[in-house]
Known about the structure:
Elements: E1 3-6, E2 13-16, E3 56-58, E4 72-76, E5 91-93, E6 96-98, E7 104-109, H1 123-140, E8 148-155, E9 167-173, H2 178-194, H3 198-209, E10 213-216, E11 220-223, E12 234-238, H4 250-271, E13 276-281, E14 296-301, H5 308-313, E15 316-318, H6 322-331
Parallel strand pairs: 2-15
Antiparallel strand pairs: 1-2, 3-4, 4-7, 5-6, 7-9, 8-9, 8-13, 10-11, 11-12, 12-14, 13-14
Helix pairs in contact: 1-4
Amino acid sequence: MPDLRRDPIVGRWVIISTDRSGRPHDFVPLLPAKPVSSVLCPFCPGQERLTPKEIMAYRPQPAEPNSPGWTVRVVPNKFPALHVEGDIGREGVGLYDRMNGVGAHEVIIESPGHTDSLADLPAKKIEDVLWTYRDRIIDLKKDLRLRYILIFKNHGPSAGATLEHSHSQLIALPIVPTSVLEEIDGCRAHFEQKERCIYCDILRQDLSDGDRVVAENQEFVCVTPYAPRFPFEMWILPKRHAGYFEESQKSQFECLAPMLSECLRRMGKVLARPAYNFMLHSSPLHERTGDFYHWHLEIIPKLTQVAGFEWGTGFYINPVSPEESAKSLREAEI
């Protein structure tokens, strides 16, 4: 019997329909991997001239900008969705609203190694990537035109990656995205009624039940959400309430890096290294939502496609229960 479940944060309903499929082997990629080539890869060391001039880079030894020797490098996107120059220019056009495409679009090159995967990097190198995210958020936060920063990763062609060299992206927006506003509104309503963070309540319940817990350490827990949109969807959340990713401390990044690595490796083991997306949801830059909003990382393997029913209703059909997903991920030998 299919199961209808409601997400307690945004009120979205999903259909858990395990009759359609539901085992990890049902999602093994059928297409062979393309041969790896680093020829003229703009993200490889020695070819820095092929990217826009770097915004920042971590280098163990002093060196000139835009030269080899870096471990993590940030550059403007060569084909940006938004441009940092200009005024917002908000205006009404009849009943419509518009503004100029002001913002920032950056690429975080996670490793100099062309074939390196984020899942396979040592935890210390993943920690450096997390510090890079933090540094860029703090820097861009100074621009009062910007209201929200989304950091995301597209891994694999079917997840939207156009270059195979491991990288993530940052887009700074002059508005708060609707999906984040929905989360914030749900968190605010819960807090006003119960004076508690809803994500903290979810963590308490899920840690008590254990059925949807994938992994945990002293600072973070990974769960499959109660009403997941997609098979094997995972959330990584800090155990201690925190509204702003960029306010995380060194001890937290030291725990988040191995947690992210473990979750990606478990997913890779169970699902034969699928394409995936991850998104970092944190509080808006200049709004005080930290009392009731809880930052988190969402990981979504690309196993199914959104089709007409989903687009037409806003419902998602998920062929795997989150309890079964968590069990498979938790028991994977890595």
